[in-house]
């Protein structure tokens, strides 16, 4: 157990915190763990019994004293092997159950945090980095809990049992063996820092490599059209080569433990042999006693090697644990403690008011305020369009409404209730969102339209069909052999651009929210698709408070009001006709677009 103490002693505070948190996940499974530990103890006891059997067998078996009982020897050996094998299987099975239960819990909590994390979290972390943490890095923690428990418990018990037997046989020779422990602990402490740095580098490079693969797969059309295969291959191989070098460095640093342990053990064995030969001439050490001692000492080397080798996976696992727990510690958008004091909202009328609203991307040093002193009132059922130059603050303003971000100044009101005082899930239930960047899920048409239903049984299929008809998709559905149960593919890749856009509109129609946000919903479509989408949008907007972001001014001329933003400020706010008469920025933008047309 000295090795275990040595490992924990050389952990820093951050490592000990991560390890203690992992142990907390094991506590609910204490019964299974105790059962596994008892089975491991049985395995360790069986290991110790092997050299104990050697002494009487050699000392008495070759003198004829056991002639009448020789049949007991193979029976005992086979029985011992069976007990050891069954105990080993049981310990591994029980431990695997515990580990998989903990793995499931970790993944559940990580994904829950992912779903409830703030918007800024997704801006700081790439999708590949998050996938790496949730899917792959958690397996390194699995290796910590599995391999480490097996080594530290079963191998430590085996070492303790064999060392106890060695002391019983010959305490002087055992003192030589005991020198191994502090030497190994010292070696591990020297290698430890090197391994941690290398593992962190490997972790970062793995995420970067995954990100390159993600980009190349998502943008395969651009890659092919631009003939950028060699460019992408070079990017990939540069990262892969760096990862290979760090993998080799990590293997070299971690691999030093085993050969050094073997070298020290061999030196100790040589000294033991010399001392044992000297003792045999003066103290009458028997052949059986010497063979039993050497057997026990050789058996203790294997678990000692396992204990020495645990350092590398331990460091890799602790590095992964740091990433996992940093993800799990990410604060939620809405704190649970605030919910009892929040106001519920079943169905909003749709009145929106911005009072002196300002917003700054504070995490980006040197960036100007995205919004400054915005004052705006929108009546229930009103259609308001937001236009202006790129970077004017249009998207930022509408992103404040679903509380993707919080204003850094001023307040937003929904039906005269401060937005911050309404339960977050209730706020978002009032809003439907359609953008040019359509996100569809690799599921059925019905599941995409009724997105948010927990199970297939919760989907109102009649409402789905009505929503598809309103979105001009009923003809498409009739052509499909499986109808609304047809799988749309990865992000709807089995559908055309216009069909995907209309499916997103059908989803908004099905939600039947009182507030609708349209972000460039027709900008990427051809004329025919745009006409069909525009018809669907008009049905969708009827009776709803609608906020439209548009660059193509022809699509928003019939809006009740048009709000012009520039440099984060509202500079114009009126109907299309009045803004044209005013001859300001909107009229200028309108002239430019129509002269180009």
Commentary on this structure:
The chain has 597 residues and is of the alpha/beta class. Among the domains are: 2-328, ABC transporter type 1, transmembrane domain (ABC transporter transmembrane region fold), CATH 1.20.1560; 431-512, P-loop containing nucleotide triphosphate hydrolases (Rossmann fold). The protein contains 22 helices and ten strands. It has helices at 2-9, 13-26, 30-61, 72-116, 119-124, 127-169, 171-178, 180-218, 220-225, 229-255, 257-282, 287-309, 311-328, 394-400, 424-429, 445-449, 461-470, 474-479, 497-511, 527-541, 576-582, 585-596, and strands spanning 352-359, 371-378, 383-387, 409-414, 417-418, 431-435, 515-519, 545-549, 561-566, 569-574. A hairpin with a 2-residue loop joins β9 (561-566) and β10 (569-574). α4 (72-116) packs parallel to α13, α6 (127-169) packs antiparallel against α13 (311-328) and α8 (180-218) packs across α13.
pLDDT averaged over residues: 80
- What kind of sheet is the major sheet? 6 strands, mixed
State the CATH architecture of the domain at 2-328: Up-down Bundle
Would you tell me the structural class of the helices and strands? alpha/beta
* Total number of beta strands: 10
Q: Termini separation (Å)?
A: 81 Å
Q: Predict the CATH topology of the domain at 2-328.
A: ABC transporter transmembrane region fold
Q: Strand order within the widest sheet?
A: 6-7-8-3-9-10
